[in-house]
Sequence to fold (664 residues):
Amino acid sequence: MKGKGFWYPLDNAAKIFPAVSNKEVTYVFRISVVLKHKIHIKSLFSAVLTIEKRFPYYRVILKKGFFWYYLESSRLATPVEFDHDVPCRKFTKDGLLMRVLAADNRISVEFSHLLTDGGGAMEYFKTLLAQYFINRGIEVPSDFKYMDPSGKPDPAEFEDDYNRFFKADVPVNARRPKAYHLPLPSNQKPRFGVLSAKIPIAALKDKAREKGVNLTVYLTAVYLHAIQQIWENPELNRRKKKTGKLSIQIPVNLRNSYPSITMRNFSLFVMPEIDPGLGHYTFDEIVKTVFHQMQLETDTRLINKIISRNVGSERKIIVRAIPLFIKDPVLRINHRTMGSSQYSGVLSNLGRIHFPSQMLEHIDSLMVISPPPNKMIRVSCGMIGFNEQISITFGNITRSRELEKNFFRFLTGEKIPVTITYNRNCHDECV
Amino acid sequence: MMNVCKKCGVELDVNMNYCPLCGHKTNILGEESGNNKDETYDFQELSNVQKRKVFWDLSLIVLLVGIFTSTIIDLIINKNITWSKYTITVGLSLVIHISLVVFLHTRIVSLLILGFITNSVLIILLDLMNKSIDWAFTIGIPLLLTVYLVTLLLSLIIKKSKQKGVNIIAYILLGLSVAGICTEGILSLHTNNTVALHWSLIMLVCMGAISAILLFIHFRLKKATDLRKFFHI
Fold:
């Protein structure tokens, strides 16, 4: 049981982030809700304070050990800030690795990936929203599931479940070849821009059902189709040689595959891909190949294999015994060659929340912003569903909105209504 | 009527004078303070960048007026530029220094390098203007270089220090000792053509002893680090 003054090592997924994060590539993601009323600031402060004790594993600061970084509990209060700056900013060295932000009608929570993934952050977010509504006198029906702020955290919530479910005797996964990367010109600092749109789930589902696939497969296919359009555009590729497959990294919440209640990182990636070097893929062909690849890659045995590769390398005595100041640059190079180079884009789906009608009448929209992409990936995508809507948000560090344009134009071409809800740091070349 | 913050747009309680989210004053306080507005109100409202800009503007005006006035007086009295060349040189040097501090205060390395160059040029100019002295290259610039290097080193060490306490005093004392050794070395080289150290060594021993005590106190008082977490493998 973790008492006062606890510490714990970073989980397997988080181990690399301190070495590779910087002011622009922050590994910080955001979940936002836009309400139909102005945020009552006293109720928000009070809600943050009330739920703070329920999530002690998020009240930690990053410390540097001799061999590894670690997280140490802190008495610092959860910061509640005015939301006026670039989203997903890096956290300061001596502060907590999460923050709550507010402005006008919007409440956002931002988490560093050092702490948790979308699954853990979503639990905090739902609890915060429920507590805020209670403070405002809005009914939160019992069918809306969130964590009881007065409850005690379960020790299993602190667990590094990559280690728990690690199997030593599984053969490791082979390295993937390099993927194609978007040839779009980088933006000036601060580079990160955001474009978000709201789409009715019913319309999307109808189209996905026509193809016989689920929403994630359908939207991944649209994403790959949008990248293929950039791949096929000679004007955009004149400065850079086209090499590699088109591959999308899709985080998978492992809490759905394993009996886990951890509130720390516990997700892996599947990477469906197409190789346009072999010839043009029609949308139907992309849907078909993504569907089959997703089926294969989400097999638990294959997931075990990836966990074994990731955790196994961390457990090697040679890796463990190298001091941090040597490990950091090695991790940075490793991340470049084995991480970002293997995929062309990121599509992060945080699933769907169902708000009871009493709550829904106060909620306008939800949004999830993936961590700012690095100079290789350049554009990332996050999505979240709530009731009858799905919110798709692109984070972009380039001056071009070509990918977003291709993506949303395809959907509107399929007679799916798209409403742009948020657009920040849009430059001259935007659509 | 709902009390809404004009800056961040959140709803406030009626009795709130300030927005707890962004620190902006509410309407009620704005009206009250508007009735008995004091002279410094606007300046206090400015951001730090704006305040620095105002300070720079004012300094520039004062210094340029001073340079201009002294030059005119010199021209009227002596029909030539005589003593006013000193006020012009020193005044322009001050203009450069103030500009450096205002615009480069966050970039300490650039600030110190440019500051050193400006002061070196000033010393050389003063040397050239007054033929009876000849100290710029032998004493002035080496001493200046010592001061700037020690300051640069100290500022970098202080910046890197995670816990700032009496250790900072210890670092400053050690910095002064190093500056003392360099000063005595430069002066003795100039006067005796050889490096002979006396008082600076005594200074180093004294300062070193005090620094050692201060550093010991600082690191003993520091919260003992749990070795298990620091060395976890």
Q: What stands out?
A: DSSP finds twelve helices and 16 strands in chain A.
